[in-house]
Amino acid sequence: MSEKDEISLMTSQFQEMVDQFFDLQCRYQAAIRLVQAKLEALDDEFQAQHSRNPIHSMQSRMKTIRSMMDKLERNHLEISIPSAVSNLQDIAGVRVICSYIQDIYTIYELLQRQDDIHIVKVRDYIREPKDNGYRSLHLVVEVPVYLAEGRVAVPVEIQIRTIAMDFWASLEHSLSYKTPETIPQDIADELLQTATDIAALDERMQHIHDEVEKRFGKTADRYRLHRALLAEKRQREKG
Hints:
This protein has a single domain, classed as Beta Polymerase, domain 2 (2-Layer Sandwich). Helices cover 61% and strands 19% of the residues. The protein has helices at 3-50, 65-74, 81-87, 101-112, 163-176, 185-238; strands at residues 55-62, 92-98, 118-124, 137-147, 150-162. Strand 4 (137-147) and strand 5 form a beta hairpin. Helix 2 crosses helix 3 (81-87) and helix 5 packs across helix 6. The radius of gyration is 23 Å and the shape is globular.
C-alpha cells in the first residue's frame, strides 16, 4: 500500500470514528439531561419539605474523542468508539456540589429510591480517600434513553462532593497539569495535608449546621413560612 493510500485509509477511519462519536453523543447527552432533571426534581421536593436545598450546584460534561481514546490506551484496550461504549462508564458525567457532607449521602439515598435509575457502582472516596487526599462519592448509574431503535440503558457517572472538596479537587487538578508526570513528594505531601485540613473543616461546618438545626430549626422554619406567606400576600395585592 502506498503512502497516499495509507493516509486515505487513516482519514477514512478517523471520519468513521467522528461519525460514530456524534451518534453516540446524542444518547449520552440525553442521559445527562435525564439525570440532571431527576436531581433537580429531588432537590426541589427536599426544599419544599425541609426548607433548604441539599444541592448547591451542578455541572455536566461528556468526554471528548481524545479523552476516551487516551483512557482506552492507558488501560490497554482496543481504541475505537464501540470499545469505549463497552469499557468506559464515565463517558457522560454529572458533578453535584453540596454544602454539607450529610447532603451527599442524602442525595445518594434519594437516588437509591428511584425505580427508573439503576445504581451500577459506588465508590466512596469520602470514607476511604484516595492516596493523594481526593474525596468524593462516585456513583455509576444507568438511565433509560428512548431512541428510534428502542430503549437503551446508558451509564452516567455522578460525582457528589462538598464545596470544600470541589475546591481542593479543582485546584489539585489544575496544579497537576503544571508539574511533570510525577508530582514532587514535598508538593504531594502538602496537597495531602491540605486535603486533610479541608476534610476537618467540612466536619466542623457539618457540626455547626447540625447544632443550628437542633437549636433553631423549628423557629427558622416558622420564620421562612412567615416570609413566604408575606411574599404571597404582596404578590396578590400587586395583582
